[in-house]
Amino acid sequence: MTDAGQTAPDFTLPRDGGSSVSLSGLRPGKVVVYFYPKDDTSGCTLEAQEFTALAPQFAEIGTTVIGISKDSVKSHDKFCAKHGLGIVLASDEGATTAEDYGVWKEKNMYGKTYMGIERSTFLIDGEGRIARVWRKVTARGHAAEVLEAARTL
């Protein structure tokens, strides 16, 4: 499991808009990497909207926000357009990055067990180390809490 103090696993993933995003390419800036289960679901939409609303404040403190799910780039593009999102959404269709960060978990819903992304957030400093980790995140208000933590780095 990936924890605070460790080097953040690097990744290069396709992103909304058709380009790609690489964690190492964002250094020496700070990065918020948040994993979420699915585009256009209620909790995931709320979380993305809250990060979008605070995007200018994250930018002021040199912090990039990246949301990662297994959804395709096409799905991300629709999600961004529908809700006016202004953050990077990366596609991890094979869940390899989710596995690297320890957020690809066995889940249970309505008595059925399946593998899925556990809503989690990682705050990464300018040297590529994980400064803070939030697991089993509740979407409402989370972006503001992450912004406050990013301000202290």
UniProtKB/TrEMBL annotation:
Domain Thioredoxin residue range list: 2-153
Catalytic activity: a hydroperoxide + [thioredoxin]-dithiol = an alcohol + [thioredoxin]-disulfide + H2O
Record EC number: 1.11.1.24
Keywords assigned by UniProt, alphabetized: Antioxidant, Disulfide bond, Oxidoreductase, Peroxidase, Redox-active center
InterPro entries for this protein: AhpC/TSA, Peroxiredoxin_AhpC-typ, Peroxiredoxin_BCP/PrxQ, Thioredoxin-like_sf, Thioredoxin_domain
Span of the signal peptide: none
Pfam families: AhpC-TSA
Region of interest: Disordered: 1-21
EC top class, as a word: oxidoreductase
Gene3D superfamilies given in the database record: Glutaredoxin
Subunit details: Monomer.
Family: Belongs to the peroxiredoxin family. BCP/PrxQ subfamily.
Functional description taken from the UniProt entry: Thiol-specific peroxidase that catalyzes the reduction of hydrogen peroxide and organic hydroperoxides to water and alcohols, respectively. Plays a role in cell protection against oxidative stress by detoxifying peroxides and as sensor of hydrogen peroxide-mediated signaling events.
Protein name per its UniProtKB record: thioredoxin-dependent peroxiredoxin
Species of the source: Cereibacter johrii
